[in-house]
Amino acid sequence: MDTLGTRLTYLREKRGWTKTYVANKLGIKTVSTYANWEYGTRQPDNEMLVKIADLYDVSLDFLLGRSDVVNPKEFENAGITNEEYTSLTPYQREVVDFFLVREDLFFHDNPKKLMDALEQFEIFYEVWKKQQDKK
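The chain above was modelled as a monomer; its predicted structure follows.
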């Protein structure tokens, strides 16, 4: 299971943020404090964990490694239960995650269609990834 540091790094890099940017957003005086959390040499206190979860819009369970579901609200809105999500293959999770964060897609109002359309999403996602690789 991932460590807190691994998840912090993942969340920061996914957004393209620097450690300095995150430290400033969290009100931390030195970047090394935040860096030590990512490296796993120090741990934030509970109050800071809540701030981090709010900043990245994730659950505390995800941050602490108790769940692989980044934001359960997104899945509920898309009609996917946590059990359905965790039963997907890692590749299928990657595809679902991709579509859940795309604001130009409007399937959130049609919960049943997301799981039904997963195969079509996988094809679209592969084409999109190839286009990104060519850039």
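The mean pLDDT is 80.
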